[in-house]
Design brief:
Radius of gyration: 17 Å
InterPro entries: Anthracycline_SecMetBiosynth, Glyas_Bleomycin-R_OHBP_Dase, Glyoxalase_6, VOC_core
Oligomer: single chain
Distance between the termini: 7 Å
Number of helices: 5
Structural class: alpha+beta
Pfam families: Glyoxalase_6
Shape: globular
Protein name: VOC family protein
């Protein structure tokens, strides 16, 4: 996992606090679609202290989670007949979702949903890269994205897990204009926008598991990963990887009762630094 320490979206994610518009390519939102929305809301309310308000309903019932009154993520009910994965899905910002969706197709990806309007909030599409990893595309209007990231109980980082990076990096560079900073060792790289790290790509090889599909993984910041893991178990979730120390902090990988996998992390204070946590 790569982490960037900073307070506020302008430092952590490349959101311009003055214009309130994320730089195209910035992970600006994260959303989870499940079958039992009420149960999932209760899980995250008790785990992270989130509160919920209604959001756009183009794809069915949808709510926005907030932390201390600031929106941090979205939860929705999976539409019947659609094969959307039960997984936290990052949305990458764009100024023109229709054009970006066309570029996705041109570069070998697929578009499964949209582009379509989400009321006055914005316009979206759900796509997959050539390896099959699912991500969203968001053109914000009234809703530009998360109001806070990088603090406890909010999104910290997004990481693409894939068998090897060379097959997907050209796709993301072509679609979103990322610069790439390869790691000095191992098959991993940081995606940069205007010289700022915004996400990472990890080539995990056989560690993806037999039958495992490439996927984007969301990391949430927490004060105490060990305590958070205990709460996950108490609330009916499960542990995929117990807490452990890495070079850049303490992390654990868990799944909620609906099966959505995510990582909780307490990075070490290394202001302005990015790196890989084992």
């Amino acid at each position: 996992m790569r982490v960037v320490r900073g307070q506020g979206m302008d430092q952590r994610t490349g959101l311009d606090a003055g214009s309130e518009r994320p730089v195209p390519g910035t992970p600006c939102w994260v959303s989870l679609m499940v079958d039992d929305l009420a149960a999932t809301q209760e899980f995250y309310a008790r785990l992270f202290g989130w509160e919920f308000q209604p959001g756009p309903r183009q794809l069915g019932p949808y709510t926005r989670a907030s932390l201390d009154g600031r929106v941090v993520a979205g939860l929705g009910r999976r539409p019947e007949g659609r094969t959307l994965p039960v997984a936290w899905t990052p949305y990458l910002a764009t100024d023109d979702v229709d054009e970006t969706a066309g570029t996705v197709r041109h570069c070998g990806g697929t578009v499964a949903v949209g582009p379509l309007d989400a009321e006055d909030a914005g316009r979206l599409a759900v796509a997959a890269d050539p390896s099959g990893a699912v991500f969203g595309i968001w053109q914000g209007r009234e809703h530009r994205g998360a109001a806070v990231e990088g603090v406890a109980d909010s999104v910290l980082w997004h990481e693409l897990e894939t068998p090897e990076t060379t097959g997907v990096l050209p796709f993301y560079q072509a679609v979103f204009g990322y610069d790439v900073d390869p790691a000095p060792v191992g098959d991993s790289a940081t995606l940069l926008l205007e010289k700022r790290p915004v996400a990472s790509v990890e080539g995990v090889g056989p560690a993806l598991g037999e039958g495992g599909a490439p996927r984007w993984r969301t990391h949430f910041a927490v004060d105490d990963p060990d305590e958070t893991v205990n709460r996950v178990i108490e609330l009916g979730g499960r542990v995929q990887r117990p807490p452990r120390e890495g070079t850049y902090g303490r992390t654990a990988t868990v799944a909620d009762p609906a099966g959505a996998v995510f990582t909780v992390a307490r990075p070490r204070p290394q202001a302005g630094a990015a790196g890989t946590a084992a």
